[in-house]
User: Which sequence fits this backbone?
């Protein structure tokens, strides 16, 4: 079955640690996105990538980094510079029709 | 710039009643518009989309939305609410600001269905 996988489902991190969230898709989509979701704030765009080896900062990129070495993979690193990283993180990909396909999400909690 | 405004962060309806979730958009080019649904601790699923053509769009689970350019609106409706419709709903607009495909989401509306 085609889709997007995110791992892990739940992640706990101590303050000052970097952590990497995985996102893999087998939909053969060029565009991929990372969103952060907080209660009452909807989805806010962190980073997006249209093709391999190219990515753009979204609206809240500070404290985050990404890579796009393969079409299928778009990992997100939450660095210690991110002041309030506890949130639900969603990865998505899209086609030329602009419909977004979402993974199940990773809930990150900083202890 | 593109943006989406969803009126009402929480909406409550009785089972069997009409569901109306409001969405207004702003876009400098003809918009692609979407409604997504999210169940707790899950990703978003597409309900329906408007690209071009017919302004009344039908989606899954009996939902539909009407694109009204003059009102810059894309409200979501369902004639009769079911308990399983309780979820959070997001309106979204897609464009190419700066040459890159970008989707902007509203802040969401939580739908409560009262038995």
Assistant:
């Amino acid at each position: 079955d085609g889709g997007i996988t995110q791992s892990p489902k739940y992640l706990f991190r101590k303050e000052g640690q970097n952590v990497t969230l995985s996102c893999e898709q087998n939909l053969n989509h060029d565009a991929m996105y990372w969103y952060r979701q907080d209660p009452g704030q909807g989805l806010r765009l962190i980073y997006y990538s249209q093709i391999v080896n190219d990515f753009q900062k979204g609206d809240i990129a500070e404290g985050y980094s990404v890579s796009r070495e393969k079409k299928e993979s778009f990992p997100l690193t939450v660095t210690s510079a991110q002041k309030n990283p506890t949130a639900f993180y969603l990865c998505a990909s899209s086609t030329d029709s602009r419909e977004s396909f979402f993974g199940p999400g990773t809930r990150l909690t900083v202890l | 710039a593109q943006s989406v405004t969803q009126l009402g962060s929480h909406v409550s309806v009785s089972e069997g009643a009409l569901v109306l979730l409001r969405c207004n958009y702003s876009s400098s080019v003809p918009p692609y518009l979407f409604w997504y649904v999210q169940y707790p601790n899950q990703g978003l699923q597409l309900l329906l989309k408007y690209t071009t053509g017919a302004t009344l769009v039908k989606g899954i689970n009996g939902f539909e939305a009407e694109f009204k350019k003059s009102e810059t609106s894309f409200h979501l409706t369902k004639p009769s609410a079911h308990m399983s419709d309780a979820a959070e709903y997001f309106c979204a607009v897609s464009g190419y600001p700066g040459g890159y495909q970008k989707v902007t989401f509203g802040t969401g509306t939580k739908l409560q269905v009262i038995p």
